[in-house]
Design brief:
Layout: E1 3-13, E2 16-27, E3 32-36, H1 41-44, H2 46-56, E4 65-71, H3 83-93, E5 105-107, E6 110-111, E7 117-118, H4 123-132, E8 136-139, E9 150-152, H5 193-205, E10 209-213, H6 219-225, H7 235-247, H8 253-256, E11 262-263, H9 271-275, E12 276-277, E13 282-283, H10 285-288, E14 293-296, H11 304-308, H12 311-316, E15 318-323, E16 326-331, E17 335-340, H13 359-366, H14 371-374, E18 379-383, H15 388-391, H16 400-421, H17 428-440, H18 444-457, H19 461-477, H20 485-493, H21 496-499
Length: 500
């Protein structure tokens, strides 16, 4: 006579945890253990982990025909998270564990050969998915699951201690938005006041920025301190970023404290590493930088074809990874900070050292980033080495605290304006451009100046609108309700380098 049981589990598709029904049948026939339902090779390996875990925890492994079906059958299942639900379904089907304990549970977890339950990547996504489905997650002990009720199982042997009445503990993760402290301070950087001003504008309005300068000019130091002036993440942003990092198997403690993520991939990064991919599909650096900063040091050294793939997420704030049988969406709303030498030797335009590059080398190097990507950079600035006198005054310059106060004040004005216009703005690119023009409140003098500057700098349509966004941010930093001529002049100077 067959023994059957059904348990709920989940599998990840991008950021979404999709419910999966784990059905088991233990019946007569030739002894065997098979798993069906589009299970990949890692899921198939769970048979051996389950056998060993049950044996070490003194449970009975029946000598019968065991069939496990993972439904829906058309949905691909991957990863080691099905070890625990398969083991529990088998124990419940054979009457060795009370199945009523898992009536509302979604079970996910990896088993060691000794029966210990191990955490897997994406625990936060699983917990939130179980919560949205009206249940709770049973997994290994976890502490940072953002208020989701969790049933903690340390080992299969501990199942004997569970009782039908209130069997599960419920650990909660704690959120402390704004409590993270960045130890790096802009006061450590001598001089570079123009670059600091540009980075304040970039942080306030979330503007993509490219810094160009010779070696030792401080580009990397400026970028490393950039997170210290960013506003803390909101609770919604914390959840989005934490889920992405959890799926990637990374620490989320700093994100739970409200610190925006900063990603700094090496220039040898592949397209899959930067954009995401693999099997199963995992988020890349652009998605891990969601709600934070993607810093590309030595940007000109990246493979040009890899860099050009940044264009779509920079415009849309999201990324679609397409495979033959599915499409996976990941959010990718990040602020891009790039740093590059002006030429291969690094000293083009340096007042103290001569450039040794040939014209052909200069032409090839200038084309590595590409015009379409440069057109999406709101701010482009040159960074020069500090003078010896400025270096000796290190620690006495503009601090991150002062710069952050400016950013927060501007962000408050921006958020107030966004709340005021909610429901009134159009949709799509045309609506977005119209909204920017309305928010700038340009007068006749500003219109004429912008037209003249656009012609002189050969700005594209995208370049004009991005210049207006920068000018609007500059006006917000100064508390001006409308964009004035001086704001436009400063904004255009940040694009002069790109137009050449």
């Amino acid at each position: 006579m067959s023994q059957r049981f059904r348990l709920k589990s989940m599998t990840l598709q991008g950021m979404e945890a999709i419910p999966v029904s784990v059905e088991i049948d233990v019946g007569p026939g030739l002894p065997g253990f098979s798993i069906i339902g589009a299970a990949d090779h890692v899921v198939q390996e769970s048979k051996e982990r389950v056998r060993s875990a049950l044996r070490h925890c003194d449970f009975n492994m029946p000598s019968a025909k065991i069939v496990v079906n993972l439904a829906p059958a058309m949905l691909r299942k991957s990863g080691t998270g099905f070890d625990l639900p398969i083991a529990l379904a088998l124990l419940c089907a054979t009457g060795q564990v009370n199945g009523l304990l898992f009536k509302e549970a979604f079970v996910v977890g990896e088993l060691s050969l000794e029966g210990e339950v191990q955490p897997i990547q994406g625990m936060l996504a699983y917990a939130l998915g179980a919560k949205e489905a009206g249940g709770f997650l049973v997994c290994s002990p976890a502490s940072e699951l953002m208020g989701c009720t969790v049933g903690a199982v340390r080992c299969l042997a501990s199942l004997d201690d569970l009782h039908e009445k209130d069997p599960w503990c419920a650990p909660f993760g704690s959120l402390h938005p704004g409590s993270a402290v960045n130890a790096l301070d802009f006061a450590d950087i001598a001089g570079n006041e123009v670059a600091k001003r540009a980075l304040v504008i970039a942080a306030a309005g979330r503007h993509n920025t490219l810094m160009i300068g010779s070696p030792g000019s401080g580009k990397t130091m400026l970028a490393q301190r950039f997170p210290s002036i960013l506003p803390p993440l909101t609770e919604t942003e914390i959840q989005e970023s934490a889920v992405l990092h959890s799926i990637a198997g990374m620490d989320i403690s700093r994100i739970l404290e409200g610190e925006p993520p900063i990603r700094s991939p090496h220039h040898s990064a592949s397209a899959a590493g930067l954009m995401g991919g693999g099997n199963p599909i995992r988020p890349g650096e652009v998605s891990l930088a969601h709600n934070g900063v993607l810093f590309l040091d030595e940007m000109s050294e990246f493979t040009p074809s890899v860099l050009q793939q940044l264009r779509q997420p920079l415009e849309d704030g999201k990324l679609c990874i397409v495979r033959a049988d599915r499409r996976i969406w990941f959010p990718a709303d990040f602020l891009l900070i790039g740093a590059s030498n002006p030429c291969p030797c690094g000293f083009l335009g340096d007042p103290e050292r001569n450039c040794t590059c040939t014209d052909a080398q200069l032409a090839r190097y200038a084309n590595r980033i590409g015009g379409p990507l440069l057109d999406r950079m709101d701010i482009s600035l040159e960074v020069w080495r500090s003078k010896p006198g400025e270096v000796l005054r290190t620690g006495m310059g503009l601090s991150s605290h002062d710069m952050r106060d400016q950013v927060l004040s501007a962000r408050e004005r921006i958020m107030f304006r966004e709340r005021k216009r909610d429901g009134d703005a159009g949709s799509g690119e045309q609506g977005k451009d119209r909204r920017i023009l309305d928010e700038c409140g340009l007068g006749d003098a500003e219109h004429k100046l912008l037209e003249s500057l656009s012609n002189a700098s050969m700005l594209s349509g995208r370049g004009i609108m991005r210049t207006l966004r920068v000018a609007r941010t500059i006006a917000d930093l100064e508390g001006s309700p409308n964009v004035k001529c001086e704001h436009l002049l400063e904004a255009v100077t940040y694009r002069m380098k790109e137009a050449k």
